[in-house]
Amino acid sequence: MNGADSRNSDKGKRDFLKYVLGGGLLAWVGSVFYPLFAYLKPPKQAEVEVSSVKVGKLSEIEKDSGTIVRFGNKPVILVRTASGEMRAFSATCTHLDCTVQYQKDMGVIWCACHNGKYDLNGRNVSGPPPRPLDEFKVILQGEEVSISKNA
Amino acid sequence: MTKLWIKLYRWVNERVHLEDLVEFLGKKYVPVHSHSVWYYFGGVSLFLFIIQVVTGILLLLYYKGSEQLAFESIQFIMSKVEFGWLIRSIHSWAANLFVLSAMIHMFSVYFTKAYRNPREMTWLTGMLMFFLALGFGFSGYLLPWNELAFFATKVGTDIAGVLPIIGEPIMIFLRGGEEVTGATLSRFFGFHVAVLPGIFTVLLGIHLILVQRQGMSEPIDVENSPTAERKAMPFFPNFLLRDLLFWLLVLNLLAILAVFFPWELGKKADLFAPAPAGIRPEWYFMFMFQTLKYIPAQLWIVDGEVFGIMAFGIAGLLWTLVPFWDRKSSRGEKNLLITYSGMFAVMYIIILTILGWRS
Amino acid sequence: MEIIRTIPMLLLCLLLPLMASSQSRVDQCLTCHETLGDKPSELFRRDVHFQKGVSCAGCHGGDASAEEMEQAMATEKGFIGVPKGDGISNACARCHSNATIMVKQFNSTLPRNQLEVLSASVHGKLSTTGKEHIAQCTTCHDAHGIVSTKEPGSPVFPLNVTKTCAKCHADAAFMRMYNPALPIDQLDKYRASVHGMKNAHGDVKVAACASCHGSHDIRSASDVKSRVYALNLPTTCGACHANAKYMKGYRIPTDQVKRFSSSVHGKALLEKHDLGAPACNDCHGNHGAAPPGVESISKVCGTCHALNATLFASSPHKKAFDKRRLPECETCHGYHEIVAATDDLLGVSPEATCSRCHRENQNAKGYLAAKTMRHLIDSLESSEKRADSLVADAEQKGMEVSEARFKLRDARQARLQSRTMVHAFNEEKFREVIGAGLNVSSIVAGEGQAAVDEYFFRRWGLGVATLIITIVAGSLYLTIRMIEKTQERQK
User: Considering only alpha carbons, which residue of chain B is nearest residue C403?
Assistant: First the structure.
């Protein structure tokens, strides 16, 4: 092989390499920036929704009502009595783990599965539940209501 | 494409006069010898630091640093944010690789005695950055506010508090109070994303400028060999491209680790629960932690733990000041004492770390 | 002449003692008091103690052989007069708790721990005076005409015991002093019960107060040691009702306790000690014991199973069952041997209860409804299972699916609620409850599947990224080689 030919084939190799490197670099940049941009796009559930503590404003919680709130992985029922007091209990019925609800007309915390009833202190007063509901602490910081574990 | 770059360069050059710099950079050479592979580890550490900054900023967009929301915000990143799992796992893995790479870099500099005259300041800034890296690791570890991190922080700050006189104020300063609480989390968050990065960047800048000005150090026996036998390669493009290749492989390694060994989250910290079994510090603190376990409770009139901490403190100080008490290397002579004490340190760290893991 | 007078005197003196001893021993107390005509001595002639040769002094102390009152009723001889309060029971216990006297002297097989047991019982508590037990031996056994408890004359004989207990327990003013909350109508209720009616007609085998409550060992029903404490009650009832020999002639089964113990109620009560579970009295009543009537069974079951009872009462089955005199809840669930209801009870297969009345060509409307409802609940179960396994798979793979796991609770809850809703026997209402559950489980299954898909996507993505990096790294390496070769050549 004479010098000119080898230099030509070298040049051919060089060009090929340049294309592969350039193309590969482009693909690499894409594979780095695609996840980055996807990450920056806000997800559908825009915020950390865990109400493991914060529930909302006191003024937004009606008197004589109850709401279920997610505390980590467990449901907690927040009850505001007719007189305005705030109480929070585990919303897992102690009978067969159904989720309880506040019954305004009966004035009790009620379990729809087997008619278990708890008074507004969480004590099991009627039906199959064998134990009272665990109590949670309700903390009022100004207007903000939050729930925490009872220590 | 190239024409565009040339045009851009000319435009900037007219205003800033980059020719001197370009000439200087073009003349940079990196020595080639049997130990030149270690030269890459400074760059790898730098690369990993950049990765930490980038992934850290990305995490900052979704992380919430309060006691109530920290854990859940990371759960959110892991499950709801697209590629959040990737960013978080890379950040956690790169942190560990960063400390490892920094240690390799530090030991390779130590064994090749690169800290000797005229590079004492480079060594000092490097050592300070290493301590900051440990601080990054300790403060960052708490941020997910999970069970293991909470107790590891408690134990770690307890140890700091054991020092005589200054220990208690330091502990309260670190914790933001008497106990580890949400206040501690806030403080650690502030240290981790603002204080430590700021100081680190300044030190890094000094360190890199010194390296640029002074060039790479060669081992003493290479330095003493005849000039004809010494080989070197240009920094641009040879060493740089090799460096980038190495960085590319490290990046791939991080991706593989993130997919196959995702970083766990565990259980949310509960201030009132008893300590779970298996609390341990991260591996880079393990050897010190394990050493403290072996020291008896009382040594003459000194409390065992205090003795251990002081001993490590003095060892660290001696290590940091090695350029100043290693006279022989400054003179260009072999110093076996340094080499052997370095090997002892490496062995000690490895053995104690393994012992700590197995216990 | 003197000799003639002394001989009868002598004879009298000789014979009198003999005459006295022919009165089964010396009991001058009785002799004297009888001539006085007091009631106790009249009663005492019939007393079992008298028959056994015990004199008045046996309880009252003193010297039964002395004729003179001062000697007979001397405190030096141990006379205690009419004992009061605990003195009464202590006097009885002096013999009745003494093995030497009871066994050696009288060959008695009677127990000897009555006073001890009584003192630990509810009647052993202090009375309102604070000085003695509420009840003494004589409160129930009488004082002077005591006969064996097996004799019809005993106040604690089964036919008499109700009156004896009612002396206090039906007296509102008296019971108010000790336990105002305790009912006082037990006797009235008892008389309306099967036991009470038979007892009134002279049946001594049937249960009376002491049969269930005990005699000396009576404890409050809330005392764990009481024979009528919930956990002990099945054994107490079973003492007669599970004894086939005893129950011969009454023509009712004797397997109730056995069946109950294997039932869900029995297991809950006797094995898990769940006091919320019914014992015999919760369904049959305490004193007014009788099995509930055909139309009222759902009301009895409904005292606990309220939702099911309400739904049943307004369901088409209520009228249908009443017309055919079918015992409501019992028809499908049994009575003593009630087992935990499963989905198998519902439907049209041979082992389902519905198929007993509903066939394709018989009661066809109900047949279709049963078939559909079973199909619906099965589909919810399988849908829930599928969602659960998808979420579990994602969890196994290390994906974050705690929120999906949380939502799955609602599917399970829907299934539990549908089992109650069955009792409305209304396809529409049933479908509604099931529908909500199916909705949730399909959402959760979607989330679980998405998590699993994401797991695999990550691995694929990594593969692609690695491929790209390898190409770039490879070509970069070749580029470096090429540059260095050129540099070499230029040198």
Answer: B79
The structural domain count of chain C equals: 2
Nearest residue to C472 via CA among B115, B344, B51, B246: B246
Which residue of A48, A52, A74, A147 to mutate against B (max B Cβ within 10 Å)? A48
pLDDT in tens, B47-100: 999 999 999 999 999 999 988 889 989 989 998 899 999 999 999 999 999 999
Q: Does B2 touch chain A (CB under 8 A)?
A: no
Chain A residues with CB under 8 Å of C464 CB are 31
CA A147, CA A53: separation in Å to the nearest integer? 5
C451 to chain B: closest CA residue = B79
Give which of B133, B136, B139 is closest to B184, Cα–Cα: B139
DSSP state of C129: T
C151 touches C49 (CB < 8 A) = no
Whether C319 maps to a domain, the answer reads no
Which residue, C165, C105, C122, is CA-closest to C141? C165
Contact C472 A127 (CB under 8 A): no
Confidence of residue A47 (pLDDT cuts 50, 70, 90): low
- The two three-digit tokens of residue C51, written as one number: 């028959």
List the single residue in B with minimal CA-CA distance to A44: B80
- C-alpha angle with apex B241: B239 to B243, nearest 5 degrees? 65
Residues in C closer than 8 angstroms to A73, CB to CB, are 402, 405-406
Give residue C414's domain range: 340-451
B250, A18, B247, B40: which is closest to C479 by C-alpha? A18
Q: Token pair of B260, please?
A: 């196959």
- Dist. CA B347–CA B345, nearest whole Å: 6
Which tens digit of pLDDT belongs to each residue from C94-135? 999 999 999 998 888 999 999 999 999 999 999 999 899 999
Domain end, chosen from C21, C51, C82, is at C82
Q: Select from B237, B248, B256 the Cβ nearest to the Cβ of C472.
A: B248
B:256-275 residues touching chain C, CB 8 A cutoff:
256, 259, 262, 265
Strands, DSSP E only, in C310-411? none
Q: Tokens 């005459």 belong to which residue?
A: C19
Nearest-neighbour CA in chain A from B175: distance (Å)? 22
Cα–Cα nearest to B245, from C479, A30, C488, A33? C479
Confirm or reject contact between C480 and chain B (CB < 8 A).
yes
B248 and C484 within 8 Å at the Cβ level: the answer is no
Asked whether the beta carbons of B98 and B49 are under 8 A apart, the reply is yes
Per residue in B53-76, is it b (16+ CB within 10 Å) or e — as a string? Answer: eebbebbeebbebebbbbbbbbbb
Task: Report if residue C482 sits inside a domain.
Answer: no
ipTM of the complex: 0.78
Start-end of H helices in chain A? 3-40
| Backbone phi, psi, residue C112, to 5° | -125, 15
Q: What is the pTM of this model?
A: 0.70
Identify the band that residue C20 occupies on the pLDDT scale cut at 50, 70 and 90.
very low
Selecting from A35, A72, A146 the residue whose C-beta is nearest the C-beta of B86 gives A35
CA distances from residue B348 to B112, B339, B352, C274, C363 in whole angstroms, order as listed: 20, 14, 6, 61, 86
The answer to whether position C70 is within a domain reads yes
C269-280 mean pLDDT: 88
> Peptide bond preceding B237: is omega within 30 degrees of 0, i.e. cis?
yes
Domain boundaries defined on chain A = 1-43, 52-149
CATH architecture for the domain at A52-149: 3-layer Sandwich (2.102)
Domains assigned to chain B: 28-220+232-264 (1.20.810.10)
Place A51 in a pLDDT band, splitting at 50, 70 and 90.
very low
Q: Chain A within 8 Å of B162 (Cβ-Cβ)?
A: no
Q: Does B260 touch chain A (CB under 8 A)?
A: no
Interchain contact B86–A (C-beta under 8 A): yes
In chain A, the residue whose alpha carbon lies closest to the alpha carbon of B267 is: A72
